[in-house]
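Sample pair:
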Amino acid sequence: MDLLNALVAFANFVFVPAVAYGAQLALGALGVTLIYGILRFSNFAHGDTMAFGTMCTILVTWGLQSWGIGLGPLPTALLALPVGIAVTGLFLVATDRTVYRFYRRTRAAPVILTMVSLGVMFVMNGLVRFIIGVDSIDFADGARFVVNARDFRDATGLDEGLAIRSTQAITIVVAAIAMALLFWFLNRTRTGKSMRAFSDNEDLALLSGINPERVVTVTWLIVAALATTAGVLYGLDKSFMPFTYFQLLLPIFAAAVVGGLGSPLGAVAGGFVIAFSEVGVTYAWKKVAGYALPEGLQPDGLAQLLSTDYKFAVSFAILVLVLLFRPTGLFRGKSV
């Protein structure tokens, strides 16, 4: 029975949160790896793109709520998400036309485009803070739990209760659908195959008649969809604060590099590697060990390697190790 309690505690505090967080990081890392693989630069504005898309979704959500429109037990933000994606897509395409296109036509080095993305990042960050403010915003409505800890204890007779928040379940389902649609698009559609060909060999793709501007536009629209979805899911699961999305840039880039920059499958795998590493290293394992170990071997302290304040240090350490020993990542993407 104690072993079952240990498994439930592990699922409650480690497995379920890490899977939900990993899905959010995977969606963010997919956007980063698409930009790197197709447009060939590291987009430092990606975290603030997530914040911008989430802000747009929140504003539409407030409007729908004021009109009494909702989805019952589901968050109203899911109804507003397509509008947030559309506005973010238009913003990214306009930014590409006014900023990135000039450097792309002059064949600027990737590091120049990366520096340009830093400027775009500061503009987007300031715009988001100016419009919606800097305070934490909780915009999750509807049912709070899919599985309640008290009901779980009553049903199973265990001492430990399992609680699964509806936002965690929604994150996993929506992220799985988004990833499946993306992989289907890249592998089955003509436009997706054109994007892959452009990523593999730009000059050969141009000789084959592929329109580079169309590929760039579609890439930005897909990135807008991925970034907005990831940002909204993260905001629903935690809360929305613009600076938090800037901080998320480190684990998202770490996930993309760990999986292999330019590899969509690697981005997904890297997201879960980073998530489980952060959660596992910063979780206090005393409760799980208390159930699983004999009385004499139970730890006296929290059995916590690092405080949660240092969770981003885990991403940084993994990123450094991968860059030193395997710069192509787990799935042999483009070398950094």
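DSSP finds 14 helices and two strands in the chain.
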